[in-house]
Amino acid sequence: MKIGLITKEWPPHIYGGAGVHALQLTQALRSSIEVNVHSFGESREDATSHTLPKVFASLNPALAALATDIEIAQAVEGVDLLHSHTWYANMAGHLGGLLHGIPHVITAHSLEPDRPWKAEQLGGGYQISSWAEKTAYEAADAIIAVSNGMRADVLKAYPQLNPAKVHVILNGVDTEDFSPTVDPRVQAAHGIHGKYAIFIGRITRQKGLAHLLRAWSSVNPEIGLVLVAGNPDEPGIGAEIKGLIEDLQSKRSNIWWIDERLDSSQMRVLLTGAELFLCPSIYEPLGIVNLEAMACETAVLASRVGGIPEVVEAGKTGELVDYNGDGATFESEFAAAANKLLSEPELLMSYGKAGRIRAIEHFSWATIAHQTIDVYATVIANRKK
Known about the structure:
The chain is of the alpha/beta class. It has helices at about 15-30, 60-75, 85-100, 120, 125-140, 150-155, 185-190, 210-215, 235-250, 265-275, 290-295, 310, 325-340, 345-360, 365-385, and strands spanning about 1-5, 35-40, 50, 80-85, 105-110, 140-145, 165-170, 195-200, 225-230, 255-260, 275-280, 300-305, 320. It folds into 2 domains: about 1-170 and about 365-385, Rossmann fold, CATH 3.40.50; about 185-360, 3-Layer(aba) Sandwich (Rossmann fold), CATH 3.40.50. The strands form 2 sheets. The protein has a 7-stranded parallel sheet with strand order 3-2-1-4-5-6-7, with helices on both faces. A 6-stranded parallel sheet has the order 10-9-8-11-12-13, sandwiched between helices.
C-alpha cells in the first residue's frame, strides 16, 4: 500500500494540532506502509514540498492555498490513496483524486462552518475556504473524525454525507516524547519561578485565550501563569491578546508570555513543572495538547466542548467547565474551578498520574496507525468493486 499524505504543515513549520497529527501519524504509518508526504512551503526532509510561486504572493490566503493545491494535485500520481489534512489541503486531495482516479480520505480536524471567526483572518476568503471544504468533504471516499464529537459536527455541517463514510479514530500522543521531565534550566531560561499553571496554544478565537486572561484576575495571585502563545490568526486578535497580557502583567509579576513555538523537549519540562494545564477552548475537535499535558502527569482544567470530554476524564484526570457562549459566566466558573484545584495539590497529583496512564492506554499512535490502515484498505477495496 502506497499513500499520498497531503498537509499544509510539516517540520520545521508546525504550529497547530493538525500538523502534529500529520507528522506523528506519518511516522507511525511508515513502520507498515509507504507514505509520500506533500506539504506546503519550502524544501523539507521526508516530504515533497510545494512553494507558492512569487507571482501569487499577494493573493488572499484562501486563494493562495488553492493555487498550491493545484500544484500538489498534479504531483500526486502513482499512489493507491490520497489522505488530506485541513481545508488548506483538502482540495489538493479532491482534485488529485479526480485527475488521477485515486480515492481520497480526509481527516476532520476542524470545520469551517463552526469557525465563523476565520472571516477575521481570511476576509472574503472564508467563503472560499468554506466552499473548498464542503466540496472536498461531500466527494471524499471516507472521512476520519478525530473524536465522536467531531463526527457529530461533520454530519451536522454536511448532512448529505453518508454516515457510514465517517469514521472515528481518536488523536494520539507520543508518550515517550511527552513524559514527566524535570530540568530547572528551562524555567530559569524564561525567568519562571514559583508555582504556575500553563496554557499552550495558538492565538486564535477558538482557543479561548482571551477568556482565560480575563478569568485569571480572579485566580489566587500566588500561582503564576505561563502562556506559550504565538502565531496570531490576524492582527486584531494579536493586539487584543497582547493588551490583555500586558494588563495582567502590570498587576502581577508572575505572568510569563513566551510568544514562540517551543520544541517538545522544552514543552514537556514546562508541562511537567506546572501545577495545572489550562485549556479554555470554545471550539476543540479533540485537543492534542491536553494529551501532551496528561502524558507529562499534569492535571487538566478544560472547557467541556467538542472532543475534550473524550480525552479529559472529568473527576479522574482533570475537571471540565461548561461553555455555552456566555463568556462572562464561563470566565467566572473557570476561575472558580482553577482556584479550587490549585488549593488541592494532592488531587492535582492524582489527576496527573491518572492522566498519564490514560494517555498510554488509550491514545497510542501504533493503535491509531492500525485503525487508519484499516480505513485505507476498506476504501481501496470499495473502489475496486
